[in-house]
């Protein structure tokens, strides 16, 4: 199995673990390019760029406040929320969820997914394991 196929499997399992809660996911590189996604159409490229920018701003704020490395950040909207998790130095996992989604369950499952994806991006040979 290729690295992208392994990542796609993690994203699919994440959505299946919380049925009806996750609208889509994006793995964005730190410079805003799509690595993998479950969104449709051109939306993924735009979301990936915004995710990278948001994490960059979060990193700058964290440095200013001497809060340490940014592990995750989120945006809660009226109709949807976006949860972003650092995936090593390589990228960011963004989970787009319904406004009334179970935040605790998303955090629990997404953190685990981010750890798996981090391993695949750091060492692609683990993807075939």
From TrEMBL:
<dbReference type="InterPro" id="IPR037587">
    <property type="entry name" value="LAMTOR2-like"/>
</dbReference>
<dbReference type="InterPro" id="IPR004942">
    <property type="entry name" value="Roadblock/LAMTOR2_dom"/>
</dbReference>
<dbReference type="GO" id="GO:0005085">
    <property type="term" value="F:guanyl-nucleotide exchange factor activity"/>
</dbReference>
<dbReference type="GO" id="GO:0032008">
    <property type="term" value="P:positive regulation of TOR signaling"/>
</dbReference>
<protein>
    <recommendedName>
        <fullName>Roadblock/LAMTOR2 domain-containing protein</fullName>
    </recommendedName>
</protein>
<feature type="domain" description="Roadblock/LAMTOR2">
    <location>
        <begin position="7"/>
        <end position="97"/>
    </location>
</feature>
<dbReference type="Pfam" id="PF03259">
    <property type="entry name" value="Robl_LC7"/>
</dbReference>
<dbReference type="GO" id="GO:0060090">
    <property type="term" value="F:molecular adaptor activity"/>
</dbReference>
């Amino acid at each position: 199995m290729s690295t992208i196929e392994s990542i796609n499997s993690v994203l699919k399992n994440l959505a299946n673990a919380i049925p009806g809660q996750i609208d889509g996911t994006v793995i964005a590189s730190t410079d805003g390019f799509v690595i993998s996604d479950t969104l449709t159409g051109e939306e993924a490229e735009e979301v990936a760029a915004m995710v990278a920018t948001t994490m960059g701003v979060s990193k700058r704020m964290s440095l200013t406040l001497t809060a340490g490395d940014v592990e995750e950040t989120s945006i809660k909207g009226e109709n949807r929320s976006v949860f972003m998790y650092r995936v090593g130095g390589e990228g960011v996992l963004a989970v787009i969820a319904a406004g009334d989604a179970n935040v605790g369950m998303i955090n629990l499952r997404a953190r685990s997914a981010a750890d798996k994806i981090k391993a695949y991006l750091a060492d692609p040979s683990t993807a075939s394991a």
